[in-house]
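User: Structure with FE2/S2 (inorganic) cluster, tokens only please.
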Amino acid sequence: MTNDSPDQRWFHLCTTDDLALPNAFVTTRVGAVPLVAQNIKGRVVAFRNVCTHRFAVIHGEPAGCGPLRCPYHGWSFDADGVPVGLPFNPTDFQLEAEGRRRLALHPASLARCGRLVFVRVAMDGPSLEEDLGHDLFARLAALSDAFPRPGTPVEPTEAWERIEAANLRAHLAPAASSTPPALVLHSMAPPGADPRFSRTITLYPATTDAERPA
Ligand code: FES
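Assistant:
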């Protein structure tokens, strides 16, 4: 596996707001690997979105709110990926604690840049900040903190500043114009993923007179 492999690359997934509620989840796919980031009892974690029983996809929707529970035989998983709820375990599976631990979900990497959430298939590799570079990482973090409020979608024009990072295109409304301050985030679906895994969101400052970062 080389550093050019999609498995080794960070991909922007969503914002922290999307994962703020217990059981909130967001999914994507990198090549053949489905991924899920999920809030489990307040912990936000990332796994391969594949059940370790018979390899069914756990969450089929791009985003939603519901427990990390496989739709096939109902195994549910905790924040460490360990199956903790196994219907009919005494008769059908007979899995004790050690057996359950061996069937934990495969973890994936998860990192935050300000309020932006990124995922990577590989567990090892450069940090998100190393990958993006310190300046770009700091700029995106500051922008995401300055534009926390989702609102009415707008279409960026050529006059907007465009910032590229991984699969993310951030468009920032020009400061010296009549355009209201806004930040449009467009996350392209990773390689091999269905277009339904692309996401676009328009964000606004918390207050209309808030200062934007340089
Ligand atoms: S395939 Fe997931 S519980 Fe059986």
